[in-house]
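ugh ok fine here u go
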Amino acid sequence: MEEQKKLTIGIAGASGFIGRNLIEYLLQTTDYNIVGFCRDSKGQRWSERLSWRSCDLYSLLDADAALIDVDVAIYLVHSMIPTAQLSQGNFRDFDLIMADNFSRAARKRGVKKIIYLSGIIPATNNLSNHLASRLEVEKTLQASEIPTTVFRCGLILGPYGSSFEMMVKLVKRLPLMVCPAWTKSECQPVDLIDLVEVISKNLAFSTEAKIVNVVGPESYPYVELLKKTSKVLKRKITFINVPYVSPKLSTLWVSLISRAPISLVRPLVSSLKHNMNDANSVPVDETIVTNTEFEDSLKRSFSYFKKKRLNKHERIYRPVLESEEVRSVQRFILPSGKDAAWVASEYMTWLPKFLSFLVFRVKSTDEFISFNLFGVRLLVLKFSPDRSSTSRQLFYIAGGVLADYSGRGRLEFRESSDKKYIIAAIHEFRPNLPWYIYRYTQAIFHLLVMRAFGRHLWKVNKTSQT
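structure:
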């Protein structure tokens, strides 16, 4: 009898908090082959059943290559921490691009199943941006038409997790803690190892697509979690309840005390305006209540700190941004009945009209498009027909006095999976101007132009509906 092929599990976000622990668990308890995806695979630990692929999920080309021969793809990615020296745009749009690339590539490569780790979605019409983004990523992955299992969790307790780190550092560093209204919101934290076990049990291929809440055995107000943490750490802290403190002020002091970047703290704090527990969740297909209680999970995490230190590549909060690269992402309304091919063509027609006061010209051939000012080529784009479609148009940056040609710099226009939006994005762009001059001239000018183009698309859409 022919030996059955072992499943190959591909993990996006494999070098992160949950990814590292999931890999360790799968190597110990299964015979699956595991492929970890991360931006830079150098320095990662390889073994007989564990390999790594460098993959920038902002690149559809990279996502295509990473998912070759993968049976089950696990998506553990979020974009709340910048990956470029200058990032223009918000994390919701960054998340949407990466999820859309992953979804398109998974469908192309014949992935049999997708597993996504999301957040508990409260029963409200006023979701925080963080949770709205999680829900949008869910829908984008489901648009692949591959059976997708979504696990929704609130606070995940485990060493080096961002939410866990912030909570512990607040307790360790503050003898007096002012507790605003949002700290009274309920949380139902789940232990990291319990969550990893749940994911592992659901890796076998199934045609069933489902949404599952994974929660711990008890729900507490967030302030109670802080008190219990202080008890385990044997810290005497005075807690003072106040009726209201603005989320912006809370974000600043949490970031200051925990030393986490504001870009990470802001969405996490804003989500705590909701009760993040199963009782307040929208209906789901299944709820899994795990066994490990909060204090036991804390003790397990603290004992882990004593046994292991992070390797150099396992960084908390901030990646090392070595090159002066730019990522700029804007989301616009997609006019009714239009597609990405139309938007790209419209942009090339609209731009010289909008900048006519500068004697600005756009010249195009079948392959190249050049942007010229007073006869000087500012930027040259090369259209990529092989990697473009009506739903996505791709142009590589091929030259011009404003660009430092790198080979991977690119401009794209793509539709969201629900065809409500068009995403205009520049990736891995390296300016030719000195960095500080670029940042306060060309970068700002680009934003102003794209916002004006967004207003133009809004007007086109409004006209088409009248």
